[in-house]
Amino acid sequence: MSEQSEALVKKVTDNGITTLTLNQPERRNSLSVAMLEALSTELESVSDDPETRVVVLAAAGKVFCAGHDLREVREQFDSHEFQLKLFNLCSKVMQQIVNLPKPVIARVAGVATAAGCQLVASCDLAVAADTARFATPGVNIGLFCSTPMVALSRNVSRKHAMEMLLTGEMVDAIKAERLGLVNQVVDEQALDEAVYRLAKTIAGKSGFTLRIGKEAFYKQLEMGLAEAYDYTSEVMANNMQAADAQEGICAFLEKREPDWKDK
């Protein structure tokens, strides 16, 4: 990993939980090309890491993520090639999160706007401090949040997504929870406790089972009802042949803790 990657995204693994921290608070943890490349590298590194069962995505400072780096964007106004590279790279990172074979929990303190809001919506779960705020404010500067819209519209209802996209107004943490953008809202002082309690609970499950379950969840969402049932029936039948499924069932019936082998 490069020194730049180390500087922009910090990585710490403890008891099966890997925390990736956006680490450029002086730039409001903006998703510059360098930041996106660093985050992409770290996501790739944890994908096959047997020590990682759950990923927590956090940010240093008072802002979770302010979206794209508008200074960088302004410097490249005349380069369609750069703009396309930036948005394609951002889209790649969001899909890496969805396709990562480990659950990803967003730890949100402060503001998450535009692509920062997209980042939260792309994570499997999100826990927010009561002081957190969210917005897709591109419409306010003449640049509609079209790519953030993809993740947002897959997490909240159409009308609520359109309201955020068309008004660009801030949504507080309580409303974000009501809309389904975050799972829970806690006092800012209790944020780490809530995040890592959730992460620890998930990390205690079979990594194999988590992987196939997350993959199946997102695949079936894009299917029709009958196709989704056919697909998930096949997934469950295959899952039943796994050592962890058989161990888990036996442990339940025998009233003991399962001994996961992650296979």
UniProtKB/TrEMBL annotation:
Report the Pfam families cross-referenced here.
ECH_1
What the entry lists under InterPro entries is as follows:
ClpP/crotonase-like_dom_sf, Enoyl-CoA_hydra/iso, Enoyl-CoA_hydra_C, Mitochondrial_ECH-domain
**GO biological process per UniProt:** fatty acid metabolic process
Give GO terms: molecular function aspect only: hydro-lyase activity
Q: Which keywords describe this protein according to UniProt?
A: Fatty acid metabolism, Lipid metabolism, Transit peptide
Family from the record: Belongs to the enoyl-CoA hydratase/isomerase family.
Q: What does this protein do?
A: May play a role in fatty acid biosynthesis and insulin sensitivity.
Among PANTHER family, the record links this protein to: ENOYL-COA HYDRATASE DOMAIN-CONTAINING PROTEIN 3, MITOCHONDRIAL, PTHR43602
- Protein name (Swiss-Prot/TrEMBL): Enoyl-CoA hydratase domain-containing protein 3, mitochondrial
Organism equals Marinobacter vulgaris
